[in-house]
Amino acid sequence: MHNKQLPLIDLHRHLDGNIRPKTVWQLAKKNNIELPETNYEDFLPHIKITNNEADLLAFLKKLDWGVKVLSSLDDVVRIGFENVEDAYLANIDYAELRFSPFYIAMTHQLPIEGVVEAIIEGIKQGCDKYPTKINLIGILSRTFGVENCETELNAILAHKDNITALDLAGDEYNFPGDLFERHFKKASDAGLQITVHAGEAAGPESVWHAIEKLGATRIGHGVACVKDQKLMDYMLKHQIGIESCLTSNYQTGTIKDLSNHPIKTFLENGLNVCLNTDDPAVENIELKDEFNLATNLLKLSEKQITQLQHNAIEMSFLSDKEKESLRQLKI
Ligand SMILES: [Zn+2]
């Protein structure tokens, strides 16, 4: 259970990892896209985790149908809108939704800048209807290589007024951060804030690199930080945040025993760590489930849960003034 006196915040939530199963099914029918099953129930295991997967890449494959059915920019607007609606229905007060324009665009060769515009439009429509506050984070999908990330970055930067930060996601093991230093320099120079998926499939060196060379002030997952006390000390000193995602870490095989998730050690070390969903529709969870896990399985105390929620406000890519109004929201 979360502390109801504080806002519910999801800082690590993939918009393109949260496409409703029903929407995937309906868009496939509308767009005449052949699916591997003729029955909706049989199709669900293709897009949802039914058991934990062997590794990160097997997990990521489950996201693919969600974007394969997007054959027009109107479809992209729809998933943007539905993501705001889902966040609202999950009682989330503020979310930073991240998306990879290249990943969304690639199957049907949609114009990549058009995809960014369509997401912004969908979010706007959602925010006009629901009170949930949203900011957007653009993702470079490292799995598709350096050149495609350059194209992706340019599309994101063309709309930087509507995008708060840049992230690096995908196959961390085979596409290490040093391939993307120039991309992140360009983004920092353009005024974007930086968060990077690191220490999930690779070790602490990947987190060091994200902080020192890519300019990350937040780390997605950062599970491997627990192996390096010097790194945790450095992160504490420089207030580098960790975006933890419990169920995701279990389903990707990153963490074998969830009751011993390193979030406990991060809290004991005083690190800025918060609780997030990652890919709710694929994982079949919502943020409240993660708080329940933290309470019931990890046995975090009420004080620690409250700390996680305070950290989320602190770690958010918001101005001091916006953070203050979030603090006041539930009081
Ligand atoms: Zn993620």
Structure report:
The structure is a single chain. By secondary structure, the protein is an alpha/beta fold. The protein has one domain (14-324): Metal-dependent hydrolases (TIM Barrel, Alpha-Beta Barrel), CATH 3.20.20. 48% of the residues lie in helices and 13% in strands. The protein has 17 helices and 8 strands. The protein has helices at residues 21-30, 40-47, 56-61, 64-68, 73-89, 101-106, 112-129, 146-157, 181-189, 204-212, 229-237, 246-251, 263-268, 280-283, 287-296, 302-315, 320-328; strands at 9-14, 94-99, 133-141, 165-169, 193-198, 218-221, 241-244, 273-275. It has an 8-stranded parallel beta sheet. Helix 5 (73-89) packs parallel to helix 7 (112-129). The chain is globular, with a radius of gyration of 18 Å. Zinc ion (ZN) binds at residues 12, 14, 169, 197, 220, 278.
Helix/strand layout:
Blueprint: E1 9-14, H1 21-30, H2 40-47, H3 56-61, H4 64-68, H5 73-89, E2 94-99, H6 101-106, H7 112-129, E3 133-141, H8 146-157, E4 165-169, H9 181-189, E5 193-198, H10 204-212, E6 218-221, H11 229-237, E7 241-244, H12 246-251, H13 263-268, E8 273-275, H14 280-283, H15 287-296, H16 302-315, H17 320-328
Parallel strand pairs: 1-2, 2-3, 3-4, 4-5, 5-6, 6-7, 7-8
Helix pairs in contact: 5-7
The protein binds zinc ion (ZN).
Task: Kindly list the characteristics that best describe this protein.
about 50% helix, about 15% strand, alpha/beta, 17 helices, 8-stranded parallel beta sheet, TIM Barrel, binds zinc ion, about 325 residues
